[in-house]
Amino acid sequence: MGSGDDGATTQLMKIAKVDLRGLQSNTMAWAEARAAVTASMAAHGYVVVVHDALDAELRRALFGRALPELYALPFDTKKSSGAFSNGPHRGYDGQVPSEVLESVAILNPVEPGNVRDFTGRLWPQGNPGFCDTIVSFAKNVLELAQTVERMTLEGLGVHEESIAWQLFSQSHTARMMLYGTPPDKETSNISLGAHPDDQMTTVIAQHEVGGLEVQVDGGRWLAVPPEPGTLIVIGGDQLTVNSR
């Protein structure tokens, strides 16, 4: 996965969107969606899905209030609060010379207590709106991620016992990223360099700004533009291992 713009290698490719809203397992609609999800994941390593995990109200709460509040905090507050462990893509990343971004992770964000503990170290007076938004988003996205993982593994012929164990045994992280503008756009306009994801899947909710690219077979980079009502699910190294 990467974010960049190299006209010689980057292509804008139309990837079919798979509508996962309101599906019930063991139905014809589920089977058709499963086939489309599996085909896209096998061919490209990712799938674009239509889903209401991030509806208009939750999107406004997340991108319009919660994340701006988080990133408006002073750097020293974020770094010294104890809420983060500074280091590459673990807890808090900020002011990293090789990257123009800030990145914040919350472990197991579907548990309200974890999010409250995280929030209390940043806002000692509390911030219930932030907590509610993050927990709601995390629960919705977890449901989506597990649906795509189940569909992909089923479509590849993995036994139900193995699928159930895999979904049950996972831990989850919500990572919120704020991309900046590279200081020298004449030499590079990449905010975050190319990198693999080591987990089962990564669900990406883009916020109206393009730049996401995914590398597919043959080394081509495909641009994945943001579209309202869609999320991108990218297969990671663990999915490759578990689907062999």
UniProtKB/TrEMBL annotation:
Coiled-coil parts of chain: none
Q: Which Pfam families match?
A: 2OG-FeII_Oxy
- Extract the InterPro entries matched here: IPNS-like_FE2OG_OXY (IPR044861), IPNS-like_sf (IPR027443), Iron_ascorbate_oxido_reductase (IPR050231)
**Sequence ranges assigned to domain Isopenicillin N synthase-like Fe(2+) 2OG dioxygenase in this UniProt record:** 179-241
What's the protein name? Isopenicillin N synthase-like Fe(2+) 2OG dioxygenase domain-containing protein
